[in-house]
Amino acid sequence: MQTETLIYIILSGIIALFIALFQYRYKVKSKNSKLNAVFAFLRFITIFGILLLLVNPKFEQVKYTVEKPDLVIAIDNSNSVKHLKRDLQSLNLLESLKKNKVLNDKFDISFYTFGKDLKSLDSLTFSDKETNISRALEEVSAIHKEVAPVVLITDGNQTYGNDYQFSSNSLKQVIFPVVLGDTVTYKDLKIQQLNVNKYAYLKNRFPIEAILVYNGNNNVNSKLTVYKGASVVYSQNVSFTKTNNSKIINFTLPASSIGISSYRVVLSPLENEKNKVNNVKNFAVEVIDQKTKIAIISDILHPDLGALKKSIETNEQRAVSILKPTNFIDKINDFQLIILNQPNNRFKNVIEVLNKLKKNKFVIIGTKTNLNFLNSVSSDYTHEILRQTEEYQADFNINYSPFQVENIDFESFPPLNSNYGTITFKVPSQNILTKRVGNTSIEAPLLTTFEVNNRREAVLFGENIWKWRAQSFINSKSFGDFDNFIGKIVQYLSSTKQRSRLNIDYESFYIGNSNVIVNAQFFDKNYVFDNREKIEITVTNKNTKEKFNFPFVLKSNNYQVDLSSLAPSEYNFSVKTKTANISKSGNFTILEYNVEEQFLNANVTKLQQLATNSGGVNYFIDNTQTLADDLINDERFVSVQKSNKNIIPLIDWKILLAIIALTLSAEWFLRKYNGLI
User: Fold this and answer.
1) Contact 299, 342 (CB under 8 A)
2) DSSP class of residue 550?
3) pLDDT tens track for 500-523
4) 114, 157, 216, 223: which has the fewest Cβ within 10 Å?
5) Among the listed residues 604, 603, 630, the one whose alpha carbon sits nearest the alpha carbon of residue 616
């Protein structure tokens, strides 16, 4: 309390005493001294209380609380725990920790499960198909920001994510791994990896690379066999030793029929081999009839030509030829799509033939394009001629509807060099990309598509698209995003199918451990994307005839459904719109593969390193008797006494108001009783 406030309180007492004595000693007419003393005391209390409220001194109130340290128990809910037959031991350990009274008295315990994601413990099924230990530790650290020991009950086998053994370098928690396994090494043969192309061409042979690994000390023999259905299509004897413990087998298989062909590769297991699941892998190949042939016609040399060729040919179904205008006419029937790069007068015969045959084309207009010539041969659009050039960046049109296309961060791409001037379309068109100068969007077309008389055409109003491919690699460390974007344009232009209001995008086959996603787009009668429709998919298992119904969910500018819950098998499907009553059907295959069942042992080394790096202790599931006692006796984890100081003003004390009211009432009652009022 401040000195100034204390002085005010003393003065208040003096003033109250003076007023009380003046009232009942100096001015009083009654000679009853005892009664006057009582009245003076009551008046002193009343006036002093009122003056204290006016001074309103403040008092400190300190409350002390004891906070127990947090203890996190995170248990692996992935299928590999069940596969290694450690699920019952995990449940028993979890139950013993829950019932340990001393442990619960010392810690506030939080229970979690993890597989692909970290979740609060509800039930343990050991059914998660993926494990990300690194992410689980990061999320635990985000939830429990104070230092908290983490009991990590896991086999240490991670299927994706960052290497968790170094996670402790950025985390504050002390980690106590409980290893669901042992240090015993079992002999094991496994198919480490299969490398197979997704597509093959009819009447060709497609290559397969099998990487085989042996873990053991003895010399062993086995046999690699490839089945198509019940038929053996390839076999080879293989042998391994302790030092020569891996082999790479390369062979080819014939692509004899169009469609999806499923295969099963089996590496014959050893006698008494513990894990036989990793001796089998499935794969599928889609056999197609022929390649899509694309011609790039150019009269100049330009880096765009090489970039387009590489981008398009990343899909093995497509082959690109770069030709001069004079060499193309005789080969026109060999190509399904024509790309015209910066056309000039030498393209006259080419364009006349393309228009006559109603061939789809992709026109690239740059600074070396003859705009006078282009305006004279094109009846669909004109480009104003100003003899000036400008650099334009791209803005993505999220409402583009003819086919599904994603924004691959076009806004970060370098500008394209283009001709300055107004572009006028004489036919309905849609922009994929529009022009932007600096931070100003000018809504002029940069990349546009249109359809006229069942003929499709795309026009790019800019050159140096090779810079976009390079920037895409810088952004994502891969050319994949840009190549997929160009691939979708090529697919749209090379297709001769009539435009449909309902479009379905799906894979012919899916690997069992990946997400099974089917996308759909629906358009109204004006071919504008319609987000009001309700779309459902009915999936039928070809083998069991069991049917499943799933609704599509609207996401951005398309509909999407996740079918990852389906078991591996072959499926037919039908997609139907509820209001418009439009449907489409197809089929796909889900290949059986469970990465969690590929493990033979717990990853003891990484878990031990994780414990060492974080300052914890490593335990094995068969020897956890001291785990609870070690946590209880660890002096790093102690309860913390915390104080909470509150400043309380006297005016908040309701008891003082009650005292003032009581003294006033008592004084009035006594005066009334004694006939002084």
Assistant:
1) yes
2) E
3) 788 888 887 787 767 899 999 888
4) 223
5) 630
Chain-centroid distance of CA 163 in Å reads 18
pLDDT of the residue at 520 = 92
Residue 518 CB neighbours (<10 A)? 22
CB 347, CB 329: distance < 8 Å = no
In the numeric block, the tokens 């499943």 are attached to: 548
**Would you state the torsion angle of the CA atoms of residues 78, 545, 521, 469, taken in this order, to the nearest 10 degrees?**
50
Using the 8-state DSSP alphabet, how is residue 652 labeled? G
Buried b (16+ CB within 10 A) or exposed e, 283-299: bbbbbbeebbebbbbbb
How far apart CA 662 and CA 658 sit, in angstroms, is: 6
Are 599 and 84 in contact by the 8 Å Cβ rule? The answer is: yes
Distance CA 205, CA 51 (A): 104
C-alpha to C-alpha distances, 631 to 15, 174, 599, nearest whole angstrom: 64, 11, 30
- Helices (H) and strands (E) counted in the chain, each on its own, are 14, 36
- Dig out the tokens for 280 from the structure: 């089998």
Helix or strand run (H / E) with residue 48: helix 33-55
List, in order, residues 6 or more apart from 507 with CB less than 8 Å away.
Answer: 588
Average pLDDT value for the chain: 87
Report how far residue 255's alpha carbon sits from residue 200's, in angstroms, rounded to the nearest whole number: 7
Distances in Å between the Cα of 625 and the Cα atoms of 93, 97, 630, 631 are: 10, 11, 9, 12
CA–chain centroid gap for 327, Å, is: 49
Q: Percentage helix, strand, coil, to 5, in the chain?
A: 30, 35, 35
How do 58-67 and 361-364 pair as beta strands? unpaired
CA atoms within 13 A on the CB side of 94: 24
Q: Give dist(CA 308, CA 323) in Å, integer.
A: 14
* Tokens of residue 92, six digits: 């028993």
H helical segments located in 232-367? 303-312, 348-357
Output the pLDDT for position 29: 57
Lookup: tokens for 213: 């690994």
Report the alpha-carbon distance of residue 314 to residue 480 in Å, rounded.
Answer: 9
Contact 542, 572 (CB under 8 A): yes
Residue that the structure tokens 């004595």 belong to: 21
> What's phi and psi for 376, nearest 5 deg?
-75, -25
pLDDT on residue 32: 63
What stretches of 333-388 show up as alpha helix (H) in DSSP? 348-357, 371-377
Pull the structure tokens for residue 572. Answer: 């037919």
Q: How far is 79 from 129, CA to CA, in rounded Å?
A: 6
DSSP 3-state of 134: helix
CA distances from 283 to 251, 269, 566 (A): 15, 19, 18
Residue where the block lists tokens 């031990």? 608
E-state strands within 513-622: 517-522, 535-541, 547-551, 553-555, 558-562, 569-577, 583-591, 619-620
What is the helix (H) or strand (E) element at residue 441, kind and residue range?
strand 440-452
Quote the CA–CA distance of 1 and 182 in Å, as a whole number: 66
Pair 413, 468: CB distance under 8 Å: yes
Phi, psi (degrees; rounded to nearest 5) at 471: -65, -35
CA 613 to chain centre: 28
In this prediction, residues 234-247 reach a mean pLDDT of 93
d(Cα 126, Cα 129) in Å, to the nearest integer? 9
602's tokens: 């717990």
Distance CA 464, CA 300 (A): 13
Q: How far apart are CA 331 and CA 338, in angstroms?
A: 11
List the end-to-end C-alpha distance of the chain, in Å, as a whole number. Answer: 41
Take residue 198 and report the two structure tokens written for it: 């997704």
Pair type for strands 292-298 and 188-196: unpaired
